Amino acid sequence: MRIIAAAAVILGAACAHAAPVYGDANGDGAVDYRDAVVLLQAAAGFTPVDDTMRRNGDVAPVNDYNGGSFGDGRITILDALRVARRAGGLSTAAWPAKSTGMLLENGNSYTVRKYDATGAATTGPGTGLPDESNVITGPISETVGGVTYNNVYEVTASDGAVQHLLQVTDATDTPASVQATQLVLGGNVTSFSPPLIVAKYPLQNGTTWSGTTTATSPAAPSPVTVSYNASVSGPVSVTIADGVHIFDNAYKVTLNYSSFPLLSGKDYYWYVPFLGPVQHGYTLTTLLTTTKTINPDVKLVSANVHGVLYP
User: Which of 31, 73, 143, 202 is 20 to 30 A from 235, comparing alpha carbons?
Assistant: First the structure.
């Protein structure tokens, strides 16, 4: 079972972390001039960027889309200036605007480049095949295992494959997790009951989760029970497929899954705030094949997230 695509890596459980206190870069519970100073020092390279800064301090730019999303995955002088304006009562924009947790909003899109086990690109310039584009639409209602979910988004690839991801929010409407009700695995449409949780928010170093689900696929004669556990590490630096754009605050999610005795494996994806997953790889072992490792097999080429085209 191979978990495919930059927006559909699997599994997890509901988020247990409190929502970020946006602007509180030093983690003291307040948003004031001291946070602006911390961000300014980090942006200038005088102090290292830690997890608290990344989680709370990436508040700029504000993007004029659907109420205003914010952030670009980096700590820059723009973040320091926005916090300073907020602390001084000069900011007129909604605070903190709308958090960009994932690519899951109607109209968002992204393009990925695929790679083989040798690290050579199999799509894109010089390959004779175009990079894979993906368009997100929704939300729709979908019934899985007798339960109806009302906030499911369809991710349609240029080859016609359609995957379904469920956006889950907490009581404050903050993204808590992303779940998969349907993925395309090895060319087969596979559904999950209960839905697989793709990510827990916010992604933080040391976060872990585990669970069990039932997978139903035309490739299997009967439903298969899948057990899994996942962990988050980082931040790490990743370079996307254009070879130029580098993210220094990507968090790596490692997913271990098993459907004894037929299958076991690991999936890896690197997630960047604002853009979502930017890189993916896997290790797969089955009774019928030897262990196969490709890391990465997918990299982000570009994305149109909340009306902002990147890169």
Answer: 31
Rounded distance between C-alpha atoms, residue 174 and residue 32, angstroms: 23
Reported as a single tens digit per residue, the pLDDT across 123-158 is: 999 999 999 999 999 999 999 989 999 999 999 999
Q: Which helix (H) or strand (E) holds 39?
A: helix 33-43
| Burial degree of 243 (CB within 10 A; 0-12, 13-18, 19+) | exposed
DSSP state of 115: B
Report the amino acid identity of residue 9: V
**Residue closest to 131 by CA, chosen among 163, 109, 106:** 109
Structure tokens, 91: 């900011």
| Phi, psi for residue 37 in degrees, rounded to 5 | -65, -45
Cβ atoms 87, 93 nearer than 8 A: no
Task: Provide CB contacts within 8 A for 130, sequence distance 6+.
Answer: 123, 124, 158
Give the position of tokens 């929010």.
169
Count of alpha carbons within 13 Å of 235, Cβ hemisphere only?
22
CA separation for the pair 154, 11 (Å, rounded): 17
- Residue 108: C-alpha distances to residues 19, 74, 115, 133 (Å): 24, 21, 24, 11
Please report where in the chains the tokens 């926005």 appear, as a residue: 82
Place of tokens 């990079």: 131
Question: What whole-number distance in Å separates Cα of residue 68 and Cα of residue 81?
Answer: 18
Q: How far apart are alpha carbons 8 and 180 in whole angstroms?
A: 7
- Residue 17 makes CB contacts below 8 A (sequence gap 6+) with 200, 201, 202, 204, 207
pTM here is 0.74
Classified as helix, coil or strand, 35 is helix
